[in-house]
Write a structure and sequence with these properties.
Elements (H helix, E strand, L loop, with lengths): L21 H5 L1 H16 L4 E3 L9 E6 L1 H5 L3 H7 L4 E14 L3 E6 L7 E8 L1 E7 L5 E7 H14 L14 E2 H8 L4 H7 L5
Antiparallel strand pairs: 1-2, 2-3, 3-6, 4-5, 5-8, 6-7
The structure holds zinc ion.
C-alpha cells in the first residue's frame, strides 16, 4: 500500500515524534507500517522516509539508496557526494551519538517539500544508535551521502526540515536545479549565487 506523503505546512512535520516501546515494535501494526513506508519510499522514489512524513508521529524511519538510482547519475557527481548504495534499513528511536566537525555541503531535497532543492551543510560523518525492526540495538557509522540521509531523516523525527538548515539563496525548483546548478561544483554554485566561501 502506498501512503500519502504530507507536504510542508502539515503540523505533524513540525512536531517532535515520540519513541516506540518494545511492545509497539513487535506489533503487527508497526510491521505493516514499515512495509507500507518501504513501498511508499520506493514508489516516490526517495532514499529515505520518516514516519511523520506519512502523518505518523513516531520515531521511525526507513532508508535505502538503491544501486539503480546511482547508475543513472554521473560518476563524478557520485564521487563528489561520496554516494554509495545503502541497503534497506529500518531506524527505530534513532539518536546521533557523534558527529564530525567536518561538514559537507550539497543540494538536497525532501519528499515533503516536493519539487524543490537547496544547499544544505551537514556533518560528513555521524554515528547513530537505534533499534532495528526486530527491536535489536544497532550502531551505525556512516560517512558521505549515507551520513546526510541519516541526519535528514533523524531531523524529521525532531520536527526539523532541511528548510531550517538550508542556504536560502540556493533554494531552487528541481527543474532549475537540473537546468542550471546540478552538475556544477558547489564552490562554483556559491560563487554564482554571491555567497561567501
Ligand atoms: Zn525529508
Amino acid at each position: 500500500m502506498r501512503l500519502k506523503i504530507v507536504q510542508t505546512g502539515e503540523p505533524v512535520l513540525r512536531r517532535a515524534a515520540r519513541e516506540l516501546t518494545s511492545a509497539e515494535i513487535a506489533e503487527p501494526a508497526t510491521r505493516g507500517l514499515i512495509e507500507w513506508m518501504r513501498e511508499t519510499m520506493r514508489d516516490a522514489p526517495g532514499v529515505g522516509l520518516a514516519a511523520p512524513q506519512v502523518g505518523v508521529g513516531l520515531r521511525l524511519a526507513v532508508i535505502e539508496d538503491r544501486e539503480d538510482f546511482l547508475r543513472a547519475l554521473d560518476p563524478a557527481v557520485l564521487a563528489e557526494r561520496e554516494r554509495e548504495p545503502v541497503s534497506f534499513q529500518v531506524l527505530i528511536n534513532p539518536r546521533i551519538t557523534s558527529r564530525s566537525a567536518e561538514e559537507a555541503e550539497f543540494f538536497e531535497g525532501c519528499l515533503s517539500v516536493a519539487g524543490y532543492s537547496a544547499l544544505v551543510r551537514r556533518s560528513r560523518r555521524v554515528e547513530v544508535e537505534c533499534l532495528d525492526e526486530e527491536g535489536r540495538p544497532r550502531r551505525i557509522e556512516a560517512s558521505g551521502w549515507y551520513a546526510r540521509i541519516l541526519q535528514h531523516e533523524i531531523d524529521h523525527l525532531d520536527g526539523t526540515l532541511y528548510l531550517d538548515r538550508m542556504e536560502p539563496r540556493s533554494f531552487t525548483t528541481t527543474e532549475n536545479l537540473t537546468r542550471h546548478w546540478g552538475s556544477m561544483p558547489v564552490a562554483s554554485v556559491r560563487e554564482a549565487l554571491g555567497l561567501k566561501g
